């Protein structure tokens, strides 16, 4: 199934009413049913020069593979209370933040997952959020970024302190015609403004990056909230962003992941370093970066997860992973150590383990329970009983908490020897 160019704001009415309790503990694994994943096949990579290269190293799931027992993956809780579909998640110290298309943001306190606070503002649903120190940046459908300050000394724990672009930024630029850009016929706007929904945010080295359906990537300075740069980054909507170690990775509906580098010694100027090309006419909806930028993985609207490895010798990138992960579009990716988690429009969550060498991935199970597409995932650093917590937000308006076990290779070998 191929989605439209923009990730749609799918609204689904749950088949059954949402549970009214804030937290529902689950002692069983009824929401974690096993599923068999389809077999994948070799594909070609389409390069910028329209040449094709056959992939030598590709991770293909064996047709005989079967998922492990569903008891390995436990649904710990179902959190309800959002007005609309859950669109994004973020960790903020001891809190988990979940936002929805209903404009509301709910703060859950770890590890007991009690509802701690609720806030929200604006004319558009919340599309993305990131945390920087004691501030939270939220991106909205109304093309604005809102900045919230976290303070325990105030009755209003999350206080709105600014909206981007700031008034100061506007006043410094609106008089000069050179600061305006053409966004469509007979319509211009300042280059510091997004002209469509802001779909994703990332933060690194004192900068906040915003990607939009208007195809642009903008860079904001955290210290004074000034817009430093705007890049015409893609030929279609930007759906996912990752920023780390001076590099920015943007995934787009044009089927490409682009890697941007900042000029050495400055964070204010970025240039295109590499283009990773996915499947033809397939939107890339999400991107993650593992092992300090050595591996990049993208989730596509055709249900595939694709991965690339950087050749440390010459800086080139090789396609090392191409797996038919879901029957429908992969909407989100998250990772914890060697584990990659994928959320899909088919309502399931896939758990994948990365190979020690080569960058391939192998499926170790699926989790089901959401009554709508899984729109966002966030792995937690909290270690629980030899595993980690995974939060998932769905278009069924619920936030679910899962326990994902981590396989210990030493224990596994010992068990084989003992048997």
TrEMBL record:
Residues 25-42 have a biased composition (Low complexity). The keyword Repeat applies. SMART domains: WD40. Coiled coil: none annotated. Pfam families: WD40. Keywords: Repeat, WD repeat. WD repeats lie at residues 191-230, 231-261, 323-353, 367-402. Residues 25-46 are annotated as: Disordered. PANTHER family: F-BOX AND WD40 DOMAIN PROTEIN, OS01G0946100 PROTEIN. This is Uncharacterized protein.
């Amino acid at each position: 199934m191929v989605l439209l160019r923009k990730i749609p704001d799918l609204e689904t009415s749950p088949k059954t009413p949402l549970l009214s309790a804030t937290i529902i503990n689950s002692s069983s694994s009824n929401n974690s049913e096993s599923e068999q994943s389809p077999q994948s096949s070799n594909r070609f990579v389409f390069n910028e020069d329209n040449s094709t290269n056959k992939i030598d190293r590709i991770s293909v799931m064996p047709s005989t593979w079967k998922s492990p027992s569903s008891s390995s993956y436990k649904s710990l809780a179902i959190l309800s209370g959002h007005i609309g579909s859950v669109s994004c998640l973020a960790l903020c110290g001891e809190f988990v933040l979940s936002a929805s298309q209903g404009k509301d943001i709910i703060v859950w306190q770890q590890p007991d997952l009690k509802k701690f606070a609720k806030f929200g503002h604006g004319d558009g649903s919340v599309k993305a959020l990131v945390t920087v120190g004691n501030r939270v940046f939220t991106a909205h459908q109304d093309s604005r970024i809102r900045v919230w300050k976290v303070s325990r000394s105030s009755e209003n724990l999350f206080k709105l302190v600014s909206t981007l672009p700031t008034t100061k930024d506007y006043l410094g630029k609106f008089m000069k015609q050179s600061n305006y850009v053409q966004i469509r016929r007979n319509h211009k706007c300042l280059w510091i403004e997004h002209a469509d929904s802001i779909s994703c945010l990332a933060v690194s080295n004192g900068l906040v990056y915003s990607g939009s359906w208007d195809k642009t990537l903008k860079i904001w300075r955290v210290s004074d909230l000034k817009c430093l740069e705007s890049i015409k980054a893609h030929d279609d909507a930007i759906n996912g962003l990752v920023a780390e170690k001076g590099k920015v990775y943007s995934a787009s509906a044009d089927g490409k992941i682009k890697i941007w580098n900042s000029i050495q010694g400055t964070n204010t100027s970025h240039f295109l370093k590499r283009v990773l090309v996915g499947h033809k006419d397939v939107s890339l909806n999400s991107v993650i970066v593992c092992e300090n930028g050595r591996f990049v993985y993208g989730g596509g609207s055709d249900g595939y997860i694709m991965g690339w490895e950087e050749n440390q010798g010459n800086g080139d990138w090789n396609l090392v992973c191409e797996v038919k992960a879901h029957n429908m579009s992969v909407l989100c990716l998250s990772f914890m150590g060697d584990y990659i988690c994928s959320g899909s429009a088919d309502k399931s969550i896939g758990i994948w383990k990365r190979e020690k060498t080569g960058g391939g991935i192998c499926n170790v199970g699926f989790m089901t329970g959401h009554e709508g597409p899984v729109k966002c995932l966030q792995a937690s650093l909290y270690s629980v009983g030899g595993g980690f917590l995974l939060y998932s937000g769905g278009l069924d308006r619920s936030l679910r908490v899962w326990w994902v076990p981590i396989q210990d290779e030493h224990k596994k070998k010992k068990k084989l020897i003992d048997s």
